[in-house]
Every structure is written in C-alpha cells, then in structure tokens.
Amino acid sequence: MSKLSIHGLSKTYSDGFQAVRKVDLEVQAGEFLSLLGSSGCGKTTTLQMVAGFIPPTTGAVVLDGRDITHAAPEKRDMGVVFQSYALFPHMTVAQNVRFGLEMRKMKRPQVDDRMAESLSMVRLSGLENRYPSELSGGQRQRVAIARVLAIRPRVLLLDEPMSNLDAKLRGEMHVELRALQRRLGITTVLVTHDQAEAMMMSDRIAVMANGGIAELGTPQNIYDHPTSEFALKFLGQANVITGEIASMQDEIAAVRIGSASVTAKVAGGQIGRQTKLFVRPERLRLTPADNCNVKGTVLTRLFLGGLWFYEIETELGKLRSTAANFGTAQPNEGEAVGISWSDGDLQFVASEVGNG
Q: Could you read off the pLDDT of 189-200 as tens digits, one per residue?
C-alpha cells in the first residue's frame, strides 16, 4: 500500500485561467478518496496532474516519499481507468489485459498467470476471446479495471469510470469495485460529479469548487456536519433557513425567522446578526399539529418508492421533508401537519467556500 501526497498543486493556462489553486492533500495508504465536484471545478485537472498527463504550474506530487512531479506517466507506477474505458477495439479481452504486461517485457508464463488472475478478480474468466464490441458496458468497464490491476499499480486513479452505465448497473459496480479495492488494499483516487457515488464508495471526500478544496472529510461527517454552505448544498438536499439572532447563551442562539423562533448552536453568533441554519429533509418528522416544533400545510406529496417526499408551507418558509415508506397512510396535500426535529438536527453553516 502506498501513500500519495499533493503539495500546493496549481495549474494556470496560458490565457491566465487558473484551473487548480494550490491544492494540498494527503491520501493515506490503502485509502479510497474521491474528488467530488461539478464540471469545471478542477477535479479532473488535478487527477491528470497526479497521473502525469498535465504538467503542474506549481506544486509537487509525492508517492511514498519520492517526488514524481516531473516523472513520465509510465514511470509513476499508477493505473488509470478512464471514462471511455480506452480499450483497444481490435484486441480481445485477453489481449487488452496482456498489453500493459507485454509492454513491460514480462515473460509469457507470468503474463498468462497475471492476465488470468486479473480477469478472475473482476469475474470475467471465460470471456478472454471476446472483443469489446461483444461485451456489455459493465463488462467493458471490468476489462479496463482488470487491465490496470494486472500491472499491479501502487495507486489506482479512476476518472468517472461509471458515468456511461445505467443507474442499476452503476449501483452494482459501486459495490463490486469498492469490495475489490478493499480486498486488494490499493490506494485509490476517484474523480466524480455524482454525490451518491462518492458517499457510497469513499473513505474520505474532497469537495472541490473554484479549483480548490471546499470541504474534506468522511462522507458522513461532511454530509451531517458541513462547514461551508457550498458543501451543504452540493451534497444532497437541505432546508436553509435565514434568520436573525435574538439572544445567545453558551453558543445556543434563539434565531427569529419572521414571527417564529428556533434554537440552534451557532459558533461566534452575535445578537442582531443574520445567520443561516440548515436541516436535512430526512431529519424532519411529520407529527400531529398539536405536538411539534412548527406547524405547516402540505403543498406537495410525491411517492418515490422507498420514500415519501413532502414540501410543506410553514412559518419558517417552505420546508422539504422525506419519510421512509412503511406502507402506512400518509398526509394528503392541503392537510395540516406538525414538523418536529431533534436537538442538533438544526445546524449553523458558514457561507464561505474555502480553497485547499
């Protein structure tokens, strides 16, 4: 297992556009880390600099203490799986997997053993003689992964490798790839724009914005306790409530929103200052209107299979709530309801987006 370190990595193009801004990141040995963000945030450029495909303007890439910033891609001991899979269409599955090994001038018996082992890892044994055009999307992806695993890279780089798969197959591949990565213990960096994918697969997530890291932490921590409004809104849905601090006691603020008032822990709060609070839809529970934190009226009710989704008009504004489908009767549109939450569910969030 190998440790990957990124120090002050930046990329500025000749027209002055700064795609990546001084990114610092430590990827621990055996860790699965995702670079998550929307198009243009700098995540793919960062991965390409790590892989050696794009030279950085400033900064360093260090693998197990060795500076590889200016090493050629083939000298970095990294394996890359691309969004397009980049399989050779005129080669069979076996030939595609063997290619990297033969380029390294390995002896034929060793090449055969490594090819067979790699295909077995991704459950493609028996398909050695098929061509990429004869495979499903999921099978082509597995060939691309097997080809990379065959060379035994110290770091695995994944550039949105599942974006071309349908939702069901993508979900299956998430489980398979994560299990394989854990079994092999290979240090892995994934680039993705898919929040669910990043949260499902990662040990940690680096949320990127404007060429820098806006948030870094475990999936649960940055979802439940984001420190920036950008990360809060990018990772799932959230109800954001703006109000004025009416009183403070030991960092617990009474926040006035119109004629209503709620309490929450607010870091550095001052009386009279505007502040933003948030609560995730799944933390809001529909309760009887006579025993709740706030009353409301159901505006929209949608059935999502495993979940019910509600939009509710309240004194705090429109709030969105979700509830698990247990097959029980649910409030109708136009019905009065109560909304309740537990202490700590309503949280303060900062507005700034920092750069790493």
A: 999 999 999 999
